[in-house]
Predict the structure of Phosphoribosylaminoimidazole carboxylase.
Amino acid sequence: MEQSELLSVLEKVANGDISVENAMLRLKQQPFSDIGYAKVDHHRGLRQGTGEVIYGAGKTPEQICGIISSMLKHGQHRVLITRLTVDAAAAVSEKYSIDYHPDCGIAVIGGNRPADGIGRVVISTGGTSDIPVAEEAALTAEFLGNEVVRLYDVGVAGIHRLMAHLEEIMSATVIIAIAGMEGALASVVGGLADCPVIAVPTSVGYGASFGGLSALLSMLNSCASGVSVVNIDNGFGAAYQASMINHIGRKNENTLP
């Protein structure tokens, strides 16, 4: 059950459309389902505003289908799956209708939440090689109900490419800066924007980049204020945080007295 569904139940009780007993029955449903290999959290949407997300890596197609079945059965009509391989996606698609993006391993069931954030999430990359991580972030942010602007291949090696998008940068509610190599993009964007910047180091780079560790350390040591950093290649985590920032105003509007 998501928070919007809880509000709907309470409104129906207030209007006399359902009884208090029926409302209690719906709220008392088991908060998770134990299906053996997974304990599927059905109250996460109620607690956090967003339902559970399936991390596809390391799971068999049968396990993923079982988790999806449990989610749908308990009213989670929109499901996001990350790090889903092509082979696993093919197997899952035999049972469920999925919108699959093989370039970043994202799959969606039930479509995206309508964009209802307070502004726009801008996603920028240093280079084209960072796009798979950026698309994981962009598709996650769109699934969570955000308007997304993509600024790809605007790294510091040709900084004029970034400067051509100052309007998008300066009007953003939150920016995700994604880069490998030395990870300098986050500091540059952080020095231009008046909003939170979430830096994502990627594993793109030559040997001394150490699989993204160099970019991670550079971003952690950024001299620009307002820059936070997530783990290497973690586009999903950056998008989730960005969505929370972009919905803070909406959350305050919906807070009951």
